[in-house]
Amino acid sequence: MPYAWLKWLPLPVVATTLGVAAVVIGMRQLGLLQPAELSLYDFYVRSQPARDPDSRILTVLVTEQDIQAQKTWPLPDATVADLLTRLNAASPRAIGLDIFRDLPQPPGHDRLQNMIRINPRIIPVCKSTGETAEQPEVPPTTKYSCSTGARAGGLCRYSPR
């Protein structure tokens, strides 16, 4: 007899197992388990020990002291272009620019736009579809594309030229 295991496996056990599996799969497909899954994942990430920053990554911050020294905010495009030139001189693999420019900040707007457009290492933040800001003056590069409503959590992907 090919199904000898059916003799010792009671039918209620099989029915209960299949029923519970169907309910769990159905709840997951409807998204009912997502809040619990995300909460557990957040708890897991927060419970990890603090890591030292990666020595290969340099973070350049604009602080209140910098703004007071420049005596202007937002920083002029020329100042940002000078900073990018200095950073680019160190030959990094990438420069992430997390300063959104929806309006030009003269002087130096054309220089900043050109630098971002021609330098493959500079990756500016860009406006995603559905936001209220008008199209940014510094358009997103064709090197990277983000999903609609993407956050900085890794929903962007690289597409070589």
Question: What does the model show?
Answer:
By secondary structure, this protein is mainly alpha-helical. It folds into two domains: 11-46; 64-158, no CATH class. Helix content is 40%, strand content 7%. It has six helices and four strands, in the order αααααβαβββ. The chain has a two-stranded parallel sheet. A two-stranded antiparallel ribbon has the order 3-4.
Helix/strand order, N-terminal first: HHHHHEHEEE
Would you identify the regions where 5 or more consecutive residues have pLDDT less than 50? 135-139, 144-161
Rg, Cα atoms, Å: 26 Å
User: How much of the sequence is in beta strands?
Assistant: 5-15%
The total tally of domains equals 2
**Arrangement of strands in the largest sheet:** 1-2
Question: Helix fraction?
Answer: 40-55%
Characterize the overall form: elongated
Structural class category: mainly alpha
How confident is the prediction overall: mean pLDDT?
A: 78
User: What is the count of DSSP helices, taking H or I runs of 4+ residues?
Assistant: 6
> How widely separated are the two ends?
63 Å
Number of DSSP E strands:
4
Largest sheet: 2 strands, parallel
